[in-house]
Amino acid sequence: MARQLEDESREDAPEAGRPVSEFVPGMTVRVGSLGRDGELLDFPDGKGRVRVRVRNATVEVDSDDLFEVAAARSDAGPRAEISVDVEQSESPVSELHLRGMTTDEVRDAIERCVSTALVQGVSSIRVVHGKGTGALRSETHAVLRTMPSVKSFRLGRWGEGDTGVTIVELK
Fold it and tell me: What's the fold here for domain 2-86?
């Protein structure tokens, strides 16, 4: 009840609509904590958590954070199967540190970071891969080239981290 009152007092509460009472995979719902619409992917699990596709990321949220929206309204966008745990990403993502990772770990880390940034509405991120042998930089650029949500990327300039970072602009 307290959560419902808290949600109703938010500025975007009138946009959110009524809490979802019947869960139907494929329906458009509003994720209150994100302030965005998405597509419900499945029924609530035993803990009351559900997966929702928001823009090009799949997020897992509490079912009581979902609200009904008009069927014609949707900003779900392109589909991707990247999972992001919203509770771990409360503050906006702006930087990802890859130093110390193997090249095999880089793809997953970048996909998670980009997805979280997109869900949060962040337009650019800074990926710190270090200078070293260049293996992490090469893998970072290879991964970014394949991501449709990446508008552009470039090596850092002097004062930004030089060739030890990559600046990524998101769509």
Answer: SH3 type barrels. (2.30.30)
